[in-house]
Structures are given as structure tokens and as C-alpha cells.
Amino acid sequence: MRLAEQVVIVTGAAGSFGRAIADRFAEEGADLALADVNEAGLQEPARLVRERGRDALTLRCDVTQRADVQRLVDETVAHFGRLTTMVANAGVIDLAPFLDLTDEAWSRVQAVNLTGVFLCDQIAARQMVRQGGGGRIVNIASQIAEIGAPLTVSYAASKAGVRSLTKSTAAALGPHGIRVNAIGPGPCPTDLNMERYSQPEIRAHVERQVALGHLGEPIDVANVAVFLASDETRWMTGETIFVDGGFLLNAYRGSPEYDAAMLRVVERRPGG
After folding, report:
1. What's the alpha-carbon Rg for the chain, to the nearest Å?
2. 167 catalytic, yes or no?
3. Known catalytic membership, residue 159
């Protein structure tokens, strides 16, 4: 029960990482407010939380809208009485060659992945300060922020922004006793990228670049989120932990087969 008595918001809770994080946090004793634009998708993580004997509040929230995030925090506090932890997990991805990347696609990814994290961090931190200080913020970045990739330009840029935001926010909130850290997941099949990893050429190529030889799973990210939200990291802030099986040891290396398979995925998408 490493997170006993914690009240945690998880954004993007209807997705693969969000569901796994919610389940593990509940297993460790936390009560959770689960948020997503896909309100129907929140029923499954809420069920997992309640089966662990913990309370779950579900709320529709568009993290790009300040009013939505403020309502999320306000309703969480009204229901549970306080907020101890924010997990800013909501994210989207757009695949496109750099020369074909549109303004609209670029702006949407930055709005969700970077502005959304900023709004969640700021509004949650204001509540924590009103409570008297102290708290935990966990942002979800990505290993791709460290290396870039030709078909995920907007996503890589947004996640690099999350890493920088995490450092600056940690410096700003340290005097209030609020710790801010990030996780950089490596290659994991999730709702956002299952289409890619269902392609044998893509999966085999990526697995060859992972030092441990296989893709990760959402539970691997959830376990580290528990660690960062626990008192075990009470003297740790402004850091990003990469959970990538050693992918960054080899960084990005393309291959003709991988690049061709990725382009086929892009071309099958609407407007591709």
C-alpha cells in the first residue's frame, strides 16, 4: 500500500497507459479521478479501480481547455476532499513525413501533449499549494524526445517540450514541496500505436534496437509511475526516467524495410 491515502488524477485514463496506471495505483491504495475525452472508455479503468476496493470518479476532460482541467481538479477535490497527485498522461500522435506535416496536425499534437500537460501541472499545483503545499506530479514524456524520428516530428517535439517543462516546473514548485518528474516510455504496443506494431517489419526492426530484445508493456510504465508517486522518491524532482528496455542505447536507426512499412501505415490513414 505504497500510495495509501493518496488522491490521484490520471488524464488519458481510457488509453493503455492510463488504464495500467489507474489499476496499479489502486492496487497500492490510491483513490482515483479518471479523466479522458473518451468518457465511455473510462468505465473499464473505473471497474479495475473499484475491484481493488478503491474509489473511482470518472470525468470527461479535454486537457487543451483550461476550464475543463479546472473543473476536473475542482470536482476531484469536491468528491475526495483533496488532491495529492497528478499524472498528466493524455496524449496523441500524428504520423506524417516532415514535408507533408500540416499546421493543423502540428498544432493539435502540441495542444494535447504539451499545453495539456502545462495546464494539468499548473492547475493541480495551485490546488496543492492551497492545501498547504506538498504533492506529486508525474508527466508522461517519451524516449523519442531524445532522438527524433522522421515520421513523428510533431510528437517528438511535444515530448521534448514535456521534458523541459518538467524541469522548469520542478524548479518553480520545489519551494512548495511539490515534486515533478517524468517518464519516457520506450516502444510499447498501446492504443495509439497498435497499428504500427501489428506490422511484422516494424515490430522486428524495433525489437532489434531494444537491448532487452522485446517491446515493453503498459505495466512497465505504470510500475515506474507508482515509484515516482511514492515516498521512495521524496528527494527526487525534475528528472525523467526512461523505461525503454535499453532502446536509447542504440537510438534511432532506420532500415529500408522499416521505413517502407511505416510509410504504408501513414498512407492508410485518412488524408494520408
Report:
1. 18
2. no
3. yes
**Catalytic site residue from 155, 167, 252, 258:** 155
> pTM for the full model?
0.92
pLDDT in tens, 126-136: 999 999 999 99
69-112 pLDDT, tens digit each: 999 999 999 999 999 999 999 999 999 999 999 999 999 999 99
- What pLDDT, in 10s, does the model give residues 135-176? 999 999 999 999 988 899 999 999 999 999 999 999 999 999
Active-site option among 159, 167, 252, 258: 159
